[in-house]
């Protein structure tokens, strides 16, 4: 008899007033008992609507069934057949728009906590400390992967499992991409990211850090060196700015810089860590996505008294994960909806205040979202010390400019064949944010997976020719 | 890991290191730089490639000991390794086969200037160079420049080598005495580059400067290195570091470079000071 409770089993969390002063994880995860109880809410639907919402097709009802019976390792095995990074996805997937959106239990009440269960299973496996050493037969064929973010890691892992000799070339001194330098510790502990990355390295993937493809080596040179295929997973790249007056004042950061200083360079531990960051008492974050929520909550944790999120549309339109919006509000972040920055005022070269104008929403445009328009004469000014701009990224031009024959869209995204992720250049594949623009971890992983499958097929054909 | 092959003290504050770094050495060109981390907790600091040897797969850096990270770097010995060393970053300098070029290097700016001047000399361009520094010891690479340049002039604050005064005083003298240059390449402190442009701009002598804003990743990801050039935002790590001196908003660069003055100070006190 399934558990017919309308609500998910609550996940224990740190108290908001405590956690907004530390970098420990906010959500504490289920216990065995809680996980088993939540798992019994799943109806084990034959047509599996949830699975069609998951970009990597995790066998959801099957793994949940194992959880109900306490077979957590078996559940882990089922998940990792399709998903190399379950502890990460369980935490950061926008489940409400993906697997859980389609869950039949969501028609009346809350959907099954699929993400929470996935997280539990991955954490449980990690705590057991068991290493499964897969039996891989090497085929000696070299494949290069550019970028060690979720797209690149997934592609590398899948190809390594198939026996390929995979090397990841990463520009930074750490693998993980946004998982390491963007998403903060309190939402995605770095230990855990490192552990899941280690699982991929343990499959025999080679790592070349500190290599900027396009500068240190080009794609064509990799091919000349004998890599039979190249996968580009170089991410979203250059942060966008608003182009308003005062944006280069001291105290104005892009979210990427702010978060990188803190997550990757550990500026929160300054001066024990040599990289500094400026937070100030009053902080304005511009934007409404996950990046904006992360920047705001991070600023709060670093001691800012007032943190504003300034977003030009309304609450309904916020693109961030729902859970992050709730968490941000609980932690005392102040939302200013329907407000658009016009100008940043300075004093002695430092940010002093931000001038905004109120907006109202007009009818929906082609994208289906209602377009914000300015309310004339509604300008208002807020005193602040720091501005963090989180309005998105445009692709990095490095690879595009140094790879003749690689077609890109007008906005810079790499053009790929949707079925195979192959680019306009033979045996060169791409996926993740480099193709779609800033999107999600799981879509990037889905692309890496698809490309791995297509690369395998192509190289097998090439071999038999 | 990146092994230190050679180390040399150039003066009290400036040192040279030759580092084994195959990926950088294979492809780097004059004008490009690296970002290094001394140890696994280290800060990412940018340094220009002062020279390279493709066969030995080595790269030369010349650094001034200014604060925490450069001090940490100077504590390393031949045979030790650096944690990270990534590059070549930035665009290579666009060196044209002009008739006559003037290079101006202020202080440690002589180091990034050298590979550009060397390449120009190899291309058959006639090059004059002005080197400046606080005093005689702070003039860098004088012999190396003298070996390849037509004329090398010196200016020191205290008059211990060459003219007593600034590099810009010499620049004015050279121009006043009728010397014609197709291009001036100026590398040094921002104030010096600004002062050079103040002289060359009215004379319409094309002037290239090399900017050194505060950087983090060096790959175009963070936007911290942004500078205003010709009214547009540019990222020095991918669009530069060389820019047309006439178009650079120097005052903004100077202001942004001082963003962490307080913290740099804290850091030094905490770690024994320079
Ligand atoms: C602050 C923040 C919060 C987010 N929160 C969420 C969330 O909650 N849920 C979610 O699903 N998504 C979230 N996202 C989006 C998600 O992180 C990205 O969509 C995802 O990481 C994209 O993966 P990727 O592999 O394509 O690129 P990235 O993760 O960007 O990785 C690209 C990697 O390639 C490297 N690289 C780049 N250029 C080169 C080069 N020339 N040579 C070598 N290496 C190179 C980079 O250094 C990087 O390591 C968030 C993003 C940010 C910034
Ligand atoms: C493209 C580029 C090329 C450079 N080439 C050289 C070179 O060839 N030789 C040389 O001696 N110096 C060079 N610099 C400057 C060098 O990076 C700084 O001196 C160094 O980072 C100082 O670090 P610190 O911790 O020792 O000193 P700190 O006390 O931290 O800082 C002293 C000063 O260095 C600058 N600085 C600090 N951190 C950074 C950073 N992450 N990025 C850039 N500047 C910073 C600031 O202006 C600061 O006021 C270059 C900088 C850039 C951007
Ligand atoms: S990977 Fe993401 S979308 Fe797929 S089941 Fe897990 S949480 Fe849901
Ligand atoms: S749709 Fe919901 S209830 Fe049905 S199998 Fe999927 S998770 Fe279980
Ligand atoms: S240093 Fe980060 S974009 Fe240039």
Nutshell version of this structure?
In chain A, 34% of the residues lie in helices and 16% in strands.
Topology:
The complex is a heterodimer of chains A (465) and B (274).
Chain A (H helix, E strand, L loop, with lengths): L15 H4 L12 H8 L9 H4 L7 H9 L3 H11 L3 H7 L21 H15 L13 E5 L3 H12 L3 E5 L8 H4 L8 H12 L4 E3 L10 H6 L4 E4 L19 E3 H10 L17 E5 L3 H12 L4 E5 L11 H9 L3 E3 L2 E9 L2 E15 L5 E5 L5 E4 L2 E4 L7 H6 L25 E3 L2 H4 L4 H24 L1
Parallel strand pairs in A: 1-2, 1-4, 2-3, 4-14, 5-13, 6-7, 6-13, 7-8
Antiparallel strand pairs in A: 9-10, 10-11, 10-12
Chain B lengths: L1 E8 L4 E7 L1 H6 L5 E5 L7 E9 L4 E7 L3 H7 L6 E2 L1 E6 L10 E7 L3 H13 L3 E8 L8 H7 L2 E6 L6 E2 L2 H10 L6 E5 L2 H11 L6 E4 L15 E4 L2 E4 H4 L2 E3 L5 H8 L3 H10 L4
Parallel strand pairs in B: 8-9, 8-12, 9-10, 10-11, 12-13
Antiparallel strand pairs in B: 1-2, 1-6, 2-5, 3-4, 3-7, 4-5, 13-16, 14-15
Helix pairs in contact in B: 5-6
The structure holds flavin-adenine dinucleotide (2 copies), iron/sulfur cluster (SF4) (2 copies) and FE2/S2 (inorganic) cluster.
The site of FE2/S2 (inorganic) cluster has 12 residues of chain B, from loops.
């Amino acid at each position: 008899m399934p558990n017919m409770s309308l609500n998910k089993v609550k996940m224990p969390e740190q108290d908001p007033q405590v956690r907004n002063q530390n970098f420990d994880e906010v959500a504490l995860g289920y216990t065995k008992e809680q996980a088993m109880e939540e798992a019994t809410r799943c109806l084990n639907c034959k047509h599996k609507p949830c699975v069609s919402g998951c970009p990597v097709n995790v066998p959801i009802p099957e793994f949940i069934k194992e959880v109900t019976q306490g077979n957590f390792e078996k559940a882990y095995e089922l998940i990792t057949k399709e998903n190399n990074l379950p502890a990460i996805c369980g935490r950061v997937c926008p489940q409400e728009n993906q697997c859980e959106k389609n869950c039949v239990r969501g028609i009346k009440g809350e959907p099954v906590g699929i993400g929470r269960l996935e997280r539990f299973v991955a954490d449980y496996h990690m705590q057991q400390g068991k290493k499964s050493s897969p039996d891989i037969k090497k085929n000696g064929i070299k494949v290069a992967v550019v970028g060690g973010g979720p797209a690149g890691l997934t592609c590398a892992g899948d190809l390594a499992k198939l026996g390929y000799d995979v090397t990841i070339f990463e520009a930074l001194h750490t693998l993980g991409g946004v998982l390491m330098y963007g998403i903060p510790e309190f939402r995605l502990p770095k230990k855990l990211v490192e552990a899941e990355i280690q699982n991929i390295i343990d499959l025999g993937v080679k790592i070349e850090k500190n290599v900027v493809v396009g500068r240190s080596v080009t794609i064509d040179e990799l091919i000349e060196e004998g890599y039979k295929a190249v996968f580009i997973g170089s991410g979203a790249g250059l942060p966008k700015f608003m182009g308003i007056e005062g944006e280069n004042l001291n105290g104005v950061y892009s979210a990427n810089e702010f978060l990188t200083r803190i997550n990757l360079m550990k500026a929160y531990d300054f001066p024990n860590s040599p990289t500094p960051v400026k937070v100030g008492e009053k902080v304005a974050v511009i934007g409404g996505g996950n990046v904006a929520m992360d920047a705001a909550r991070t600023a709060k944790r670093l001691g800012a008294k007032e943190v504003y999120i300034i977003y030009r549309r309304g609450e309904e339109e916020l693109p961030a994960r729902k859970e992050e919006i709730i968490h941000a509000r609980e932690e005392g972040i102040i939302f200013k909806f329907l407000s658009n920055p016009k100008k940043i005022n300075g004093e002695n070269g430092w940010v002093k205040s931000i001038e905004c104008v109120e907006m109202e929403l007009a009818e929906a445009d082609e994208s289906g979202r209602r377009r914000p328009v300015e309310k004339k004469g509604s300008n208002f000014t807020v005193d602040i010390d720091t501005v963090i701009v989180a309005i998105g990224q445009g692709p990095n031009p490095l690879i595009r400019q140094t790879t003749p024959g690689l077609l890109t869209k007008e906005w810079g995204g790499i053009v790929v064949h949707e079925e195979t992720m192959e680019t306009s250049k033979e045996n060169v594949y791409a996926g993740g944010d480099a193709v779609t623009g800033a999107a999600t971890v799981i879509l990037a992983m889905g692309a890496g997976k698809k490309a791995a499958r297509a690369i395998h097929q192509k190289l097998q054909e090439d071999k038999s020719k | 890991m990146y092994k230190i092959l050679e180390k040399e003290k150039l003066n009290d504050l400036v040192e040279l290191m030759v580092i084994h770094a195959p990926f950088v050495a294979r492809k780097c060109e004059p004008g490009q730089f690296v970002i290094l981390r001394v140890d696994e907790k280290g800060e990412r600091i940018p340094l220009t490639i002062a020279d390279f040897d493709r066969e030995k797969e080595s790269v030369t850096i010349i650094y001034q000991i200014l604060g925490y990270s450069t001090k940490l770097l100077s504590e390393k010995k031949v045979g030790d390794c650096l944690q990270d060393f990534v590059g070549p970053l930035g665009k290579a300098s666009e060196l044209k086969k002009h008739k006559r070029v003037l290079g101006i290097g202020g202080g440690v700016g002589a180091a990034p200037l050298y590979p550009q001047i060397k390449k120009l000399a190899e291309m058959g361009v006639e090059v004059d160079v002005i080197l400046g520094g606080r005093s005689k010891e702070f003039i860098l690479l004088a012999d190396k420049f003298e070996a390849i340049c037509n004329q090398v002039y010196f200016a020191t604050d205290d008059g211990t080598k060459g003219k007593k005064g600034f590099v810009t005083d010499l620049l004015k003298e050279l121009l006043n005495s009728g010397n014609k240059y197709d291009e001036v390449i100026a590398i040094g402190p921002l104030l010096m580059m600004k002062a050079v442009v103040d002289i060359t701009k009215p004379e319409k002598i094309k002037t290239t400067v090399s900017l050194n804003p505060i950087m983090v990743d060096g790959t175009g990801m963070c936007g911290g290195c942004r500078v205003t050039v010709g009214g547009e935002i540019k990222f020095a790590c991918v669009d530069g570091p060389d820019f047309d001196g006439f178009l650079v908003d120097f005052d903004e660069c100077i202001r942004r470079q001082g963003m962490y003055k307080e913290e740099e100070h804290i850091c030094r006190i905490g770690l024994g000071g320079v």
